[in-house]
């Protein structure tokens, strides 16, 4: 159908007429987007059907990736890229006088995730399909994605992200695959021929309706499925058209309360909040997803459920979908008649779990009372799992009450979801070497002693198709000119670029692309904020969620210090810098919001001070998300990855920047450690405490932030400026930051790492002056970035955890 551009053009015009009843002259950009989207969707449908059929016939094992978040961003361009039709479409549209980028920009980001964890899930889906692996996503179709961030007077304001305002061209509603999910009520136990049976009564039923999104593999015929569930009321007609007023209002309340379940994504990825609605979302996802998987298993696979572990894997993305463990037990025992022992064997051989954070405040622990009320049968099962687990522990560790209560799944009136996930899974993995070591040696050491064989590492990755080929096509094309096309399917081949690190002509091309990308970003910045930035300045970027441990504050303090130096000596010889930030704070995270205001306040002072001769600029780009990242990352010179060592499980932004030739300034945290191992100390700027030092301080004390304040005049000046209205702000505006550092002893070691950070930034400045050396380092980074393609990560999951193999789709 897209074999050549003439065919494409003809069909484009026809589809436009069909979908919008308009001619090309009359069509709005959104009409054009819908036209192209519809064409691509129907273009993949044959392969989609074919993929489903082939998997079924092959009988191969399949993975289901359960996640409360899939941060997909836009799909039009990446689908065209994966289908290898981007060029034909571009040329065809050019002929028609239509700019492809303008069409692509019409798509509203699917922002069904908060940050790292959700974007990782999206990169994984892309890699699973591109490696021809039988694997699907299972998530929630939130009506509202992550809030839209507006800045008003430097403060974050949250607006609802009503992303479904226009029809979503990629989804297909599958009413025929709807299932029922039950909440509340009570459980009656009966004896049936000497067997205990359980009957769930007086529950409330929710209709779960799936919407399927095709996940298109790269240059193969694979089209996997992301199934997103939407909550709807069960309508009998009787309730709705009843003449009884009271009944009618009851029905309206019921309808409204059901629809709330898939209404919005929880916008907090740092602090656990034991909200009932969130637990409802989690069970809704798990129950609907599992029922539909088992229904199709029974329909298509002739095997017994006894063989489930040979046929499917259920992957638990962080603890949010951990209820899949008791839900599978429930179905096997209550509905399929398995014994507890058999059901437990099946369940624990089918589930696998990934941990994404060691922050204690993010650990999910549900109050028993809430859990029991909402999920009475599931609670009984969790209780039984806990009892049997504790009994086993007692045999292993007789008399060790403390150890057993630390390991227990239920304790202190709470259900500990991480414990449930570990006990119920055959595999537990961390997301970077350091993170997994910390899990094994510290955070989960007690579990590691019980189940050493379950623990393994899978260092995160990112899809090089979106983050290099699609976001930075010029760089991708120069790479191909230099080393050929093999890197596209074997990203490790990027290592071939090492040969070109000193090649002047290649260096020039890489520098020119960077400059072009910076010019484009400068234009975007001007349009968004009105701020004019110098494209020859160093673009120094920190974009990620706002969190105290990620230390955006350290970055601001460094900017304030630089500014103070320039105020003292406007002729100070520094390479001009543009500091770029992008970050959303959780709406209830006041400290994080104060940091956003601080960044904007400092920006306002710095950007408007004529004395410093434009040597510094500070930009905060509003509403950071996937599509904005695609503009920013290719234009970055410096990538800020400065979390307090031991706190960032992996980071994935670090990989995206590296792949686009930015040099990292970072701590030895998360995957930075492995990036450093790959590129070598000459090609990365490492500073700060090591994780060991940080963890030692946490265990043994010995750090006094105030003594740094007392002894380092730079630090004192910066902190005092927070309180003296220096930034033209209200004097108490930043008091929480000031007290957090001085009275709460600087939990994240901002002051401790300050000196080394400033010093390391001076090295960045000096290095940048030698452009040849800089671009050489940049090329070395790109060359080593192949390791961080999610194709490598998914290859490892497939062989080491999932035990799945590629299935070729003809
Ligand atoms: C309170 C609810 C909550 C808690 C934690 C929601 C979401 C989370 C996530 C686990 C936080 C998260 O996104 N973690 C990030 O996962 C990335 C992918 O593995 C890592 O690269 C990041 O380092 C990690 O912070």
From TrEMBL:
Alphabetical list of Pfam families matching this protein: Phosphorylase (PF00343)
UniProt cofactor(s): pyridoxal 5'-phosphate
SUPFAM superfamilies for the chain: UDP-Glycosyltransferase/glycogen phosphorylase
Entry-linked InterPro entries: Glycg_phsphrylas, Glyco_trans_35, Pyridoxal_P_attach_site
Record localization: Cytoplasm
Any GO BP: glycogen catabolic process
Catalytic activity: [(1->4)-alpha-D-glucosyl](n) + phosphate = [(1->4)-alpha-D-glucosyl](n-1) + alpha-D-glucose 1-phosphate
Keywords: Allosteric enzyme, Carbohydrate metabolism, Cytoplasm, Glycosyltransferase, Pyridoxal phosphate, Transferase
GO terms, molecular function: glycogen phosphorylase activity; pyridoxal phosphate binding
Enzyme's top EC category: transferase
EC number: 2.4.1.1
Gene Ontology CC terms, in alphabetical order: cytoplasm
Broad class of where this protein is predominantly found: cytoplasm
N6-(pyridoxal phosphate)lysine PTM positions: 656
Gene3D superfamilies: Glycogen Phosphorylase B
Family: Belongs to the glycogen phosphorylase family.
Main function: Allosteric enzyme that catalyzes the rate-limiting step in glycogen catabolism, the phosphorolytic cleavage of glycogen to produce glucose-1-phosphate, and plays a central role in maintaining cellular and organismal glucose homeostasis.
NCBIfam families (alphabetical): P_ylase
Cross-referenced PANTHER family: GLYCOGEN PHOSPHORYLASE, GLYCOGEN PHOSPHORYLASE, LIVER FORM
Name of the protein in question: Alpha-1,4 glucan phosphorylase
């Amino acid at each position: 159908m897209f074999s050549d551009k003439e065919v494409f053009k003809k069909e484009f015009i026809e589809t436009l007429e069909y979908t919008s009843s308009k001619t090309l002259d009359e069509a709005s950009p959104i009409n054009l987007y819908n036209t192209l989207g519809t064409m691509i969707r129907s273009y993949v449908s044959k392969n989609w059907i074919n993929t489903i059929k082939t998997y079924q016939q092959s009988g191969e094992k399949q993975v289901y990736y359960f996640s409360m978040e899939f941060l997909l961003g836009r799909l039009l361009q990446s689908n065209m890229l994966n289908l290898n039709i981007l060029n034909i479409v571009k040329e065809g549209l050019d002929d028609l006088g239509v700019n492809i980028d303008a069409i692509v920009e019409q798509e509203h980001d699917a922002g069904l995730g908060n940050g790292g964890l959700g974007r990782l899930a999206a990169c994984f889906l892309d890699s699973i399909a591109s490696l021809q692996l039988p694997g699907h996503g299972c998530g929630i179709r939130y009506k509202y994605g992550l809030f839209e961030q507006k800045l008003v007077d430097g403060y974050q304001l949250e607006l609802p992200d009503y992303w479904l305002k226009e029809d979503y061209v990629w989804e297909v509603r599958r009413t025929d695959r709807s299932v029922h999910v039950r909440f509340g009520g009570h459980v009656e136990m009966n004896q049936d021929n000497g067997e205990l049976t359980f009957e769930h009564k007086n529950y409330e039923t929710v209709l779960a309706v799936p919407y399927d999104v095709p996940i298109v593999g790269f240059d193969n015929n694979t089209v996997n499925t992301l199934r997103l569930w939407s909550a709807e009321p069960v309508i009998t007609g009787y309730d709705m058209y009843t003449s009884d007023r009271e009944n009618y209002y009851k029905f309206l309340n019921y309808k409204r309360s059901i629809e709330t379940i898939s209404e919005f994504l929880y916008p907090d990825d740092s602090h656990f909040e034991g909200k009932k609605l969130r637990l409802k979302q989690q069970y809704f996802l798990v129950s609907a997803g599992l029922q539909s998987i088992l229904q199709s298993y029974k329909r298509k696979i002739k095997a017994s459920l006894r063989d489930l572990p040979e046929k499917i894997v259920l992957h638990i993305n962080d603890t949010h979908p951990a209820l899949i463990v008791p839900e599978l037990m429930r179905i096997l025992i209550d509905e399929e008649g398995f014994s507890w022992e058999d059901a437990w064997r099946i369940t624990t051989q089918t589930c696998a779990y990934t941990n994404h954070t060691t922050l204690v405040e993010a650990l999910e622990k549900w109050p028993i009372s809430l859990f029991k009320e909402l999920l009475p049968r599931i609670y009984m099962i969790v209780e039984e799992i806990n009892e049997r687990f504790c009994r086993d522990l007692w045999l292993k560790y007789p008399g060790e009450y403390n150890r057993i209560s630390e390991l227990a799944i239920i304790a202190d009136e709470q259900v500990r979801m991480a414990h449930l996930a570990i006990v119920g899974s055959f595999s537990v993995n961390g997301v970077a070497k350091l993170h997994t070591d910390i899990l094994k040696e510290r955070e989960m050491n007690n579990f590691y002693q019980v189940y050493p064989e379950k623990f393994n590492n899978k260092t995160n990755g990112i899809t090089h198709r979106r983050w290099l080929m699609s976001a930075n096509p010029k760089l991708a094309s120069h790479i191909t000119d230099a080393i050929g096309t093999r890197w596209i399917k074997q990203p490790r081949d990027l290592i071939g670029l090492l040969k070109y690190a000193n090649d002047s002509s290649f260096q020039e091309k890489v520098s020119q692309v960077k400059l072009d990308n910076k010019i484009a970003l400068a234009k975007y910045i001007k349009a968004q904020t009105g701020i004019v930035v110098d494209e020859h300045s160093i673009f120094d970027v920190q974009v990620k969620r706002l969190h105290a441990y990620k230390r955006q504050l350290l970055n601001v303090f460094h900017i304030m210090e630089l500014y103070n130096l320039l105020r003292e000596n406007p002729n100070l010889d520094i390479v001009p810098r543009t500091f770029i930030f992008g970050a959303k704070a959780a709406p209830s995270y006041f400290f994080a919001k104060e940091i956003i205001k601080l960044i904007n306040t400092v920006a306002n002072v710095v950007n408007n001070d004529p004395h410093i001769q434009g040597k510094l600029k500070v930009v905060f780009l509003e509403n950071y998300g996937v599509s904005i990242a695609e503009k920013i990352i290719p234009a970055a010179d410096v990538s800020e990855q400065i979390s307090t060592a031991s706190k960032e499980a992996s980071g994935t932004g670090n990989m995206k920047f590296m792949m686009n030739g930015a040099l990292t300034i970072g701590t030895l945290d998360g995957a930075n450690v492995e990036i450093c191992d790959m590129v070598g100390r000459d090609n990365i700027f490492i500073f700060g405490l090591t994780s060991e030092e940080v963890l030692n301080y946490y265990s043994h004390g010995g750090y006094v932030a105030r003594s740094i304040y007392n002894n380092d005049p730079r630090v004192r000046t910066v902190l005092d400026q927070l309180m003296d209205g220096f930034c033209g702000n209200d004097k108490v505006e930043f008091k929480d930051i000031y007290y957090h550092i001085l009275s709460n002893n600087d939990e994240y070691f901002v002051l401790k790492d300050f000196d080394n950070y400033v010093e390391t930034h001076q090295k960045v400045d000096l290095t940048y002056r030698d452009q040849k050396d800089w671009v050489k380092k940049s090329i070395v980074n790109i060359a080593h970035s192949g390791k961080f393609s999610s194709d490598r990560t998914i290859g490892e999951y497939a062989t080491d955890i999932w035990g799945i193999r590629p299935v070729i789709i003809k």
